[in-house]
User: Fold this.
Amino acid sequence: MKASKTSIALAVVAAAMLLAAALVAWLNRDDPAPPSAELPPRVGDVATAGSGNADPVARGEYLVRAGSCLGCHTEPGGEPYAGGRAIETPFGIVNSPNLTADATGLAAWSNDDFWRAMHNGRSRDGRLLYPAFPYPNYTRLVRADSDAMLAYLKSLPPVARKSRPHGLRFPFDLQASLAVWRALFFRPARFEADPARPASWNRGAYLVETLGHCNACHSRRNAFGATAGPLDLAGGLIPVQNWYAPSLTDNAEAGVGDWPAREVVAFLKHGVSARGWAQGPMAEVVARSTRYLSDEDLAAMATYLAALPRGQVDRDDAPNAPPAPPSSSGAKLYATHCASCHGEHGEGVAGAYPALAGNRAVALSPPANLVHMVLRGGYPPTTAGNPRPFGMPPFATVLADAEVADVLSFLRASWGNRAAAVSTLEVSRYRGAAPR
Assistant:
């Protein structure tokens, strides 16, 4: 009798496991590819709204830049799009593949193969792709745009470079584990224009949610590395880099609901505007992607971003402490190291050094970006509208953690800024998390 009960239990467990495996397999099924000749919605046609060129290679170049593909698929000092860049994730290293027209890259890929990767997150050989490649966003790319992107990539000079195997920890290195992740957090989808919205809003939605994959940074991630979806733009720490990508729905962080559209366009095109300066990872986005977009497309992005639902972000990791009074030690450090550029009262220098008085970037919580800027310095991107950017020198070897905490706490409690003090522990934490 006991053996019989054990056999029944084992059979139930085996059946449950088979059912779970079948469910995971069913949830990982491919969405069938539409034919290449299918005409996309007008809002999805970047050539119509942006590049103004019907040539598929020229269209594809514009789209690839809009998707910021260069940054991940180019190793520092390497050939453009030849892959090899080691992308650090909380689960290990993902090495980007070669996208050039070589046999080790995309030479043998068809339009159907490429659309399958973009839309279904599956490689030409059937392997599931890791979501460090942002197919959860690209899945909504229209077919004609996918075809144009491949046309451009296959026009690039071939570079022979085999893809290196990923360096992911167990069990994240298993296709079975990835299949479970996808069953939980990914479904193929298509971009649908909202008929109740103007064409400019729909255009901006396509660029922000799909091609630009802005929520890959501007969203919190759960313990499994998944975001709440392309519409979640409420901000979050960028994995591994530990820069904070501020909320695009909160005007106190990075929301632009109260910005004139021209300032949003200037920020995305030149990296600087009267309302803000791009630094850190955002400076790379401007340098490699948005500065190449047409004013029409940038204005469409501004329309979409300005119309996002507004609300103050409530963060579990935000300090609850009230603003600390300015410290005398922080004031002295500011006068010694900062005032010559940013002004005695944090007023800055127009066109050269940003004002710190009333600067919403100064008050962000967590204060990761401030710590990174003080320790490692940085520059806005070099663009046509800002050809010789002024930069911030690094102070990592000049100031101790306690001194960085003092001067940042002073900034966050002076000239109209009202944010919680920065602790020495926070500075130490971000000092050890070097941005990449």
Remarks:
- The beta strands are 86-89, 92-95, 167-168, 236-237, 244-245.
